Amino acid sequence: MLGLLDATLQDENRAALALPVPPHLKVGDNIDDLLVTAPVADNGINLMYQVRDPKTQNLYALKTLNPARAHDRDERVMLAHEAWLAKRMQSSRAADNLVRVHEARPGGKARSFFYVLYDWHGGETLQQQLDRRQRLSVSHVLTVGMQALTALGRLHRQGVIHRDIKPANLHQGEDGVLRVLDLGVALSGREPASMRALHAGTPSYVNPEQWGFRVKAPAPGSKAGIAEAAAEELPDTQSDLFALGVTLYQLLTSKLPYGEVMPYQVGRYYRDPTPPSRHNPEIPIWLDHVVLKAVARDKRNRFETAEEFLLALERGASRPLSAPQATPLMQRDPTALWKVGLAVSVLFNLLLIYWLLFLPK
């Protein structure tokens, strides 16, 4: 079986390197008997178009490289890996929450350009829902969370780490199914080395350990560890769960638990997130505890598996999680004592200068 999978991946890589990248397409253009009906996305690396098969009127999503990246071998191989992984997942239960990819263009003919062809689903992403409304209902977010955790659990059991879970990559179809989009930076164990080394993901949804932030084990008699800089950790299944926790926090409150995080901005993680119910009083306390556990600063305090996270949502108020303990200031920021001492020293010196200059001798 592994040999077959490897051979298929090699075929994808050969096609990726041999076929030309299509030029920029516009509405009305034809590519391999598919009519371009709308541009969908352009992130500078990949382009996405909505296309239609004139014979069947079926819609598809066509993903390819930006022509400016046509000579980038690594980008070609990464898109080939995405196509291979999507096809591999179609033989598993994970396919229920992914978008189906097509081996060939409609009619079974060979492609004359390098691209990946997906089914097109009506509906919208959660990011589009956020952009349209300020806040989603608690019941809707719970449904989304449970569907997303089911999907992630299926991916993780197949040894796949998505690495870029966020509202823009979760699509709510008109059929009611939540689908995980964009396996472009997913890890499968057979991804190219350049992709494995890539610091992928959207910074505000990336777990602190990937930025080199971690919480040391607590000292004997202490309840919490001390934050420290450390070597960056590789993403794992818990990375996806943290990203989903950030997503649920955002869907419930229209805010991010640690604010907008810029790359390597570990300073954002020296405080505990504000409970979601402070931003949205409709959130029950038990859900507060679940979401705060999902986005905890300390990895050891988070959910270990998608199944554990899902169970906490399913149990809800019937078996609530205990409230997370707030991290003391000295454990959140070991330099706090020095900062306080510096402030006292500055104040004392200012008072001394005032006394010397202005008080009567």
Summarize the structure.
With 361 residues, the protein is of the alpha+beta class. Helix content is 37%, strand content 13%.
What attributes does this structure have?
single chain; 361 residues; alpha+beta; Phosphorylase Kinase, domain 1; Transferase(Phosphotransferase), domain 1; six-stranded antiparallel sheet; three-stranded antiparallel sheet; 37% helix
Explain what you see:
This protein has three domains: 112 residues, Phosphorylase Kinase, domain 1; 204 residues, Transferase(Phosphotransferase), domain 1 (Orthogonal Bundle), CATH 1.10.510.10; 27 residues. It has eleven helices and eleven strands. The strands form three sheets. Strands 1-2-3-4-6-5 form a six-stranded antiparallel beta sheet, covered by helices on one side. A three-stranded antiparallel beta sheet has the order 7-8-9. A two-stranded antiparallel ribbon has the order 10-11. A hairpin with a 2-residue loop joins strand 1 and strand 2. Helix 4 runs antiparallel to helix 6 and helix 6 crosses helix 8. The longest helix is centred in the last third of the chain and has 23 residues. The mean pLDDT is 86.
